[in-house]
Write a structure and sequence with these properties.
The complex is a heterodimer of chains A (about 80) and B (about 170). By secondary structure, chain A is an alpha+beta fold. Chain A has one domain: Beta-grasp domain (Ubiquitin-like (UB roll), Roll). The N and C termini of chain A lie far apart (about 30 Å). In chain B, the strands form two sheets. Chain B has a four-stranded mixed beta sheet with strand order 1-4-6-2, sandwiched between helices. A four-stranded antiparallel beta sheet of chain B has the order 5-3-7-8, with no helix packed on it. In chain B, strand 7 and strand 8 form a beta hairpin. In chain B, about 30% of the residues lie in helices and about 30% in strands. Chain B has one domain: Molybdopterin biosynthesis MoaE subunit (Aldehyde Oxidoreductase, domain 3). Chain B has four helices and eight strands; from the N terminus they run βαββαβββαββα. Classes of the chains: A alpha+beta (about 80), B alpha+beta (about 170). Chains A and B meet through strand 3 and strand 4 of A and strand 3, helix 3 and strand 7 of B.
């Protein structure tokens, strides 16, 4: 599974992207964020405020209960500020 | 039509190209977003009057985006505008990369037989773009880099046009 980080999530985790292989129990977006937060102190800090994190699965906005599976591209980013 | 690019654009040339050879266009509306030199946090509580504002705080801004998803969302927002209004043509150009105050960031243009559809759809496009297209602004200030926070007012502006079933809010 490919994880992409943008804006301050990239700054805080210290990485723009990483390939991960979460355990089978990780089946949805909320579960994935919990698992990612346990990867390092930096991840935990970046994901502390879940309200401030938006998630896209395969380039579609996703809710915490939406499923994730091996091979997905999952992007984590703050609320968007373009325009 | 949508374009995501690093380089600047010429407003006149873009608008001419949009309506050329289409005599059905009776009204053309455009919005251009520019880099401001004022960091929102630099405002005093007295921001309504503009007194006490500190200008020149933002030296430059870097627009980051999510290649692939950006184009996908812009195309979808553009298609939604065509579904809601009788448009002859539309154009969204959004830049990324580093820009200095005064530089153009975004151009939205809509063309229709009559002005009302052009005005409304132009506002719709920029309102939805601001809350759904994956762009983020990093401001360079004397104190270092600062990621711009999303504004509640932008959510309200986008919500005026109804909800969609594809963007998590």
């Amino acid at each position: 599974m490919q994880i992409l980080y943008f804006a301050w999530l990239k700054t805080h985790t210290g990485t723009g992207q990483e390939t991960v292989d979460p355990p089978e129990q990780v089946r949805d977006v909320a579960g994935l964020l919990d698992w990612l937060a346990g990867r390092s102190e930096a991840h935990a800090k970046a994901l502390r405020d879940r309200q401030a994190v938006r998630v896209a699965v395969n380039q579609e906005y996703a809710r915490p209960s939406d499923p994730v599976q091996p091979g997905d591209e999952v992007a984590l980013f703050p609320p968007v500020t373009g325009g | 039509m949508i374009r995501v690019q690093r380089e600047d654009f010429e407003i006149g040339a873009e608008l001419d190209a949009l309506t050329r050879d289409n005599p059905g266009v009776g009204g053309l509306c455009s919005f251009v977003g520019l880099v401001r030199d004022l960091h929102p946090d630099a405002r005093t509580p007295d921001s309504e009057s503009g007194e006490g504002r500190v200008h020149g705080e933002v030296r430059a801004m870097t627009l980051e985006h999510y290649p692939g998803m950006t184009e996908k969302m812009l195309r979808r927002i553009d298609a939604e505008a065509h579904r809601r209004w009788p448009l002859e043509a539309s154009l969204v150009i959004h830049r990324y990369g580093r820009m200095e105050p005064g530089e153009r960031i975004v151009l939205v243009a809509t063309a229709s037989a009559h002005r009302q559809a052009a005005f409304e759809s132009c506002q719709f496009l920029i309102d939805w773009l601001k809350t759904k297209a994956p762009f983020w602004k990093l401001e360079e200030t004397p104190d270092g880099g600062c990621w711009v926070d999303a504004r509640v007012g932008d959510d309200a502006a986008a919500a005026r046009w109804g909800r969609d079933d594809w963007a998590a809010e």
